[in-house]
Automatic annotation (TrEMBL), chain A:
GO terms for cellular component: late endosome; lysosome; membrane; phagocytic vesicle; trans-Golgi network. This is Ras-related protein Rab. Keywords: GTP-binding, Lipoprotein, Membrane, Nucleotide-binding, Prenylation. One of its GO terms (biological process) is endosome to lysosome transport. PANTHER family: RAB FAMILY, RAS-RELATED PROTEIN RAB.
Automatic annotation (TrEMBL), chain B:
Belongs to the Rab GDI family. It holds the Pfam family GDI. Keywords: Cytoplasm, GTPase activation. GO terms for cellular component: cytosol; nucleus; Rab-protein geranylgeranyltransferase complex. The keyword Cytoplasm applies. GO terms for biological process: intracellular protein transport; small GTPase-mediated signal transduction; vesicle-mediated transport. Substrate-binding subunit (component A) of the Rab geranylgeranyltransferase (GGTase) complex. Binds unprenylated Rab proteins and presents the substrate peptide to the catalytic component B. The component A is thought to be regenerated by transferring its prenylated Rab back to the donor membrane. One of its GO terms (molecular function) is GTPase activator activity. Its main location: cytoplasm. InterPro entries: FAD/NAD-bd_sf, GDP_dissociation_inhibitor, Rab_escort. This is Rab proteins geranylgeranyltransferase component A.
Amino acid sequence: MCDLFKRELLFKVLVIGDFGVGKTSIIKRYAEGTFSTKYKITIGADFALKQIDWDSETRINIQLWDIAGHERFGYLTSVYYRYAVAAAIVFDLTRPDTFVAVSKWLNDLRDKVSLPHGKPLPVIILANKGDVAANKVPVQIEEFCKKNQIVSWYITSAKENRNIDSAMNRLILEALENQRNNNLYNSDSLMLAEEANSGTHNSSRLCCSR
Amino acid sequence: MDYELPTEFDIIIVGTGIVESIVSAAASRIGKTVLHIDSQDYYGGFWASFNLEQIDKLCERNQNANVDISADVQLNEGERLIQIGNNNFDLKNTSQKWSIPEKLELKDVSENVEGDNCDVTETEADNGTGTEEVWTQEKLMRESRKFNIDIAPKIQFARGDFVELLISSNIARYSEYRSVSRVLTWLNGELEVVPCSRSDVFSNPKVSVIEKRMLMKLLGACMDSEENEFKDYKIKTFHTYLNDKRLTDNVIHYVLYAIAMSTVDTPCSEGVENIKRFLNSLGRFGKTPFLYSMYGSGELSQAFCRLSAVFGGVYALNQNLGGFVFDAENKFKGLVCGKQQVIKASHLVMGIEKSPEEFVKSVEVSYISRGIFITNGSVKGSEKEHLTLLFYPLKGGRELCNVIELGTLTGTCPKGIYIVHMFTKQINTPKEDLEECVSKLFQSEKEDSDVKDARPQVLWSFYYSAPDTNTANLRKDVPENAFLCPGPDCDLDIDYSIKKAKEIFNSMYPDVEFLPRAPDPEEIIIGDGSDEQIPKK
């Protein structure tokens, strides 16, 4: 059924940031187009999937990995970071301390994961809850982004569906660019499954071009 | 990122070693509320993998860091506060050594300036010309993050309990493996490839036709295990059985030390069981029965932690632990986190190194002599990179030294480098126990000879003794609703740890399925956000 598309890509995108800044809302809004004020943690799900027909030749499957409020003290497992191609760091405009935490999250991210050739992951910052506090943007944000090689930052609102698509598109554009320059992940490691024939995966997991 | 933790859980797990992590995943999976906490700021405890910088600091680290005894909490009548941690289970006799200069001499530096600018293609071209790369401490430290050095390296059997559990629980999706590409042994003063499969046996030029037939017949007999075959060997050694079969010395060597992973003292029944396990795991993934976890053995516990978190487990690392609260009936009541917060739970599970002194005072500890070496080449060079498992018989065959050699394809070290892990039961010091094997595999440190030594050079080495509690009774002095998890043992695989984790889980939650298959993300049906459903199986 995907014969129409010359290539189908799989991107793992991380959505990180402090507890309660709206990560899950953003993911739900982007992946499902819905919003609710009382999300419960989605038990048992690692990520939400969103499929985009990027252009007539390319279909992108985006895995949005939520930290789901579980590993909430900022110590994420290697499983969470591995093979990510981009990240969005979210903070809450109504809580200045969550912006301070952005640099902690960024440090942890830079420390734990980079693209195969050592290049840092493309990162955007989402200033969320823009529907109630769009005027409370931290003055340092512009400088912070420049200093830390942040691709861009956006005032978003998951509630009013503001800027989320354009922010994510920008991030995907960066990931696509990296994908074009390098054939990202390529290993002949094994994913264990019932029998050996489903064994070797040649980067079938992520970033596969068909 | 500082939040108050919730005040009540079904179960509190202290320590993120593999046994603790499996229990955590299993409990979260069935809907129990789990607080999984560690005083360290990394996952895995004694099962972790470290980069070069971190391992450098390992010797100085304090195991009981973050354990606080100045807690100030209100206790009810009869309750008492017990300090967390003990000094019985830690790495001992640690010794780390660099065998290469810190930096290049000045003239060398000027020649290498361009290389430092890190044009990847250029460096690769340099390697291609065959000039040997010159390593310095500085250069290796710059690549520190490409290292994942296991404190407890583990190899899994392709059909062992661990692999079966990973697949049946669907945790396999969180990890990747590489198959060990060759099994070696030390025979007649040389490293020889052990014929593992039928095709290996027949293609091995060092095994004569008669030996081939002997070997196949013997392995067949062990697999079938007909009663008559072994009835006279109930109290004899496997070595005696092999000798009685009138095999050649080479065949006995391959079978005893490699395929049966035994010594001259191993009982016959155990040797036969080991052979069965070896042969059963053949042909599932790759050419040998063995698998190694990509990016290091430290990944194993994190895969279970991720599952636990995805099913609602609350994770808190780098926490100040003020003590355990036990009541008058010696029942676990809660954990003091920070100075004042008491978090209650009906069960406590802890890594043995986190246990209060009084629960482990009679636990007997033996030690494992371990050595880690960073080298500049494989112990047995070949065109393609191998992942090697070597069984080295020590002391005339009375002990076996397990050797694992990892190259860059395992994601545990940079290109051009190998990591070699060695371990055996401790008898003297780690250095003395491993000396025989080290001296055979690597260049000697003194460069007094003019003859070029083709063996790899050791760039860095790290020796230590690691505690092993496999045979100890971990229930003896422990209150009814508290459980101790053993640390890494001397086995190649972690099947024993799985058994222990399952026992702990079943003691707490009898009659509940242990780690049923977790759904894939696309199988999860999400309702309107208020009533989310997950398939129970």
